[in-house]
Amino acid sequence: MKPANSSDNDGVEMQHLVADDLEQGNRAKTSQEMSKPKTDGIFQRFMLLLDEHVNVKILIRQWRPRLEFIVRLMLVATFLDDSFRTATQFSELTTRISEQGCVSWLGLGVNARVAIATVVLGAGFFAQVLGSLCLLVLFRPDGSTKALIGWAIMQPFLYAQISNVEFVAESLSIIGGLFLLRAHLVYNQTSYGAGARTQLLGRLLLPAMYLYYAGHFLFLAFTLDETDSLAVYISSLSMFVFNTLVLVGFLIGSTLVAAGLKSRLVAFLLALINILFAFYQHPFFRYIRLEGGEWKYDEDNMPMPNVALPKDVSASDFHPSQIYDLHKYYFFLGLSTSGALLLLAQFGPGEIAAQKDEVFLPVETRAQD
To answer: What's phi and psi for 338, nearest 5 deg?
Structure first.
């Protein structure tokens, strides 16, 4: 027989049990809330949603060697293309360098200029071929990066294109990518010393091309056609707004890359934009077709690229095959610039940066990983 106060004791005990259960539940809920990944930002929410269906980190880990090879291939694409052009048009390029390039500034005789142009062009050919292949297979990256950087610096002077701002800017961006790759392949540590300084120099050179584009769109934004037509005025005003937005976007992107703030994501987006621009501006594969066993050029739809021309040479003096080669060269130049930007997205901004511990894929690691 239970004591008279047994019901009271049971009630008190029940209250303690409920309180303990609630406290454990609150602790479990708090633990779950603390372990729940933050979903601030559109990009992170997208990556978390994607990670629910595909484990992004495992996928990246499996495909990383292939992706790194593709990025290196994009970086050296312009050197491989230029070396192929050099091998197939060696005599023509030698004549061009001796007559129009920096060799013509020496004031030497024709034979001497041709001899110097032959030696320099031959050295550049081997530097590009061997340097590119060595970087693809990761063999002697020290010498290969030095060879490609040296040729990229010499090329605007050799072909008298130092006044071609677009060409120089894209060359500087590619040189920046080579410095980034050199920092991670040559130096054992990139967190201090020469490795960190090399990575910083590469990151500062990367936005050179987009600073040129910013200046180009700045000029277009403040160039309005005077007209009495309302339709033409509205169209001109719309282009002003578009050019201004592009200008602001390029300036912000270049600043973030140079400062190392959100630079990995910005570099990835800029690389995608640059690839699309190269396909739009220099689609060399659309300007040639095979008819009757011969290659025909689409002269009506193949514009002249923006290159620096000598005073006595005009665009009409170029053969269609030469214009086609220029489009192909600028296409692979843009592809290499995109590869340089993707290197920043791959390696990060480095130690000397505003956000040195930046994470490109903000996805929480799963328990089973």
So the answer is: -65, -40
Cβ atoms of residues 148 and 136 within 8 Å: no
What is the CA angle 96-99-101, rounded to 5?
70
Kindly state the tokens that stand for 195: 């490795």
Residue-wise pLDDT for 111-135, tens only, equals 899 999 999 999 999 999 999 999 9
What percentage of the chain reaches a pLDDT higher than 90? Answer: 37
The Cα 166–Cα 210 span in angstroms is 10
> Do 185 and 138 touch, CB atoms closer than 8 A?
yes
**8 Å CB contact between 94 and 116:** no
Beta bridge partners of 290: 295
DSSP state letter for 360: S
- Predicted structure pTM score: 0.78
DSSP one-letter code for 171: H
Helix (H) or strand (E) holding 277: helix 263-281
